[in-house]
Write a structure and sequence with these properties.
This is Phospholipase D-like domain-containing protein. With about 375 residues, this protein is of the alpha+beta class. It has helices spanning about 1-10, 25-45, 50-70, 75-115, 120-140, 150-160, 165-180, 180-185, 225-235, 240-250, 270-280, 300-315, 375-385; strands at about 150, 190, 195-200, 205-210, 215-220, 235-240, 255-260, 285-290, 325-330, 335-340, 345, 365-370.
Length: about 375
């Protein structure tokens, strides 16, 4: 029976990666492996184990493996298991077909952008459709690894890679899912929160291995795979667009939200916004705020006093979260927002003193939006290392 299961496994599933743990194989080999382990341990301690005892240990381990595998060990049960494996094999074949087809289509647009010849709306829409299809295909594939959360931004970046490079990343995700303890041996700590794992000829994944599920926060490619894409992902924001991105950042941030706003007002930092901050803190997000500007004029002195009042209000409100909420007074006129390692926004917009309500008399505001990871890290190190 053991040989039959193993032979069938190799025949039906030429490539599994992380598709399934194949409990049939697990149960058929676990008993023998456990017995062998027992013999080796006994030899290390100069002990002997009889053949009868080895058989008993193997039999008991096999029974335990069957219980854990939760397989119905009957002819009908095995038929169901084979049918399940066949179905997963077919799903994998379809995945390969889709990802390869979309890669060819993506290559067409990649060359267009590199040559600056993507000029009409129809082609831009076509590129967006291909990207969305590829993102969905990869998202569905990685959803099988429910022990790992992959940031949607990372999935977007993966969708731009070759199939070969995607496979290499998936092997790491598979290992994180099935054998996280082994994965820790391949990672090194990057910050107090994030760890990193390098993938040969592909790039680096940045992980939070302390959380459950394990979270993949960002991805940094080794080559220029994303340069052409970044040409369309760095953009200028105007007026209410800035406020919308700010609110989206609070709702979607996974581990750190950084804000520089010279002024803060009670009108803007009111209950609704503070509730949004608190929801993020409850998710485990760290929030850091820099504020304050030294100005001796009477009007600005009043604004400065109000900013200090808001800071005290926030400190009282979020004291229960300890170091996850930090606020510091500086002398700055800079305005900056950083969301994880997903994006940053910098410009003229005061995030904590202006609600973004515009009419024909409201002053114009502008900001630059970017997903450049190197810039994000540099800005975070420069302003938020407290």
């Amino acid at each position: 029976m053991q040989q039959l299961i193993l032979a069938g496994y190799k025949t039906f599933i030429p490539y599994l990666g992380g598709i399934t743990t194949v409990p049939l194989v697990y149960a058929a080999t676990f008993g023998l492996g456990y017995a062998a382990k027992t013999v080796l341990e006994a030899r290390l301690h100069d002990q002997k184990i009889s053949k009868e005892e080895i058989k008993r240990i193997s039999k008991e381990a096999t029974k335990r493996a069957k219980r854990e595998a939760k397989i119905e060990w009957t002819i009908e049960g095995l038929k169901k298991e084979w049918a399940n494996l066949k179905q997963q094999t077919e799903e994998f074949k379809l995945y390969l077909e889709d990802i390869s087809r979309l890669e060819k289509e993506l290559q067409y647009y990649r060359e267009k952008i590199k040559d600056n010849s993507l000029q009409n709306v129809v082609e831009e829409k076509g590129l967006e459709e291909v990207l969305q299809q590829r993102i969905k295909t990869i998202s569905d594939r990685l959803a099988k690894y429910n022990g790992v959360y992959v940031n949607p931004q990372v999935v977007t970046y993966l969708s731009l890679l070759s199939k070969e490079h995607i496979d290499r990343v998936e092997k790491i995700i598979s290992m994180l899912h099935f054998d996280p303890m082994k994965m820790k041996q391949l990672t090194k700590q990057n910050t107090s929160v994030l760890w990193e794992v390098s993938i040969d000829q592909v790039g680096t994944l940045f992980l939070d291995i302390q959380k459950q599920p394990i979270q993949i926060h960002s991805f940094e490619p080794l080559h220029d795979d994303l340069i052409w894409y970044k040409k369309i992902k760095n953009k200028h924001l105007r007026n209410s667009e800035i406020r919308q991105v700010f609110l989206k950042a609070i709702e979607e941030t996974k581990w750190e939200l950084d804000i520089i706003s010279p002024w803060m007002s009670h009108r803007v930092v009111e209950e609704e916004l503070m509730d949004k901050f608190e929801k993020a803190l409850k998710r485990g997000v760290a929030i850091k705020i820099l504020y304050g500007i030294n100005d001796s004029s009477i009007s600005n002195s009043s604004r400065s006093d109000q900013s200090d009042e808001v800071a005290e209000k926030l400190l009282r409100r979020y004291a229960v979260y300890g170091d996850r909420f930090r606020i510091m007074r500086k002398n700055t006129h800079y305005k900056l927002l950083i969301c994880d390692e997903a994006f940053y926004v910098q410009g003229s917009y005061n995030f904590l003193s202006f609600k973004g309500e515009y009419d024909e008399y409201t002053r114009e505001e502008g900001a630059q939006y970017s997903e450049n990871i190197a810039d994000i890290r540099q800005l975070r190190d420069m302003y938020f290392s407290f």
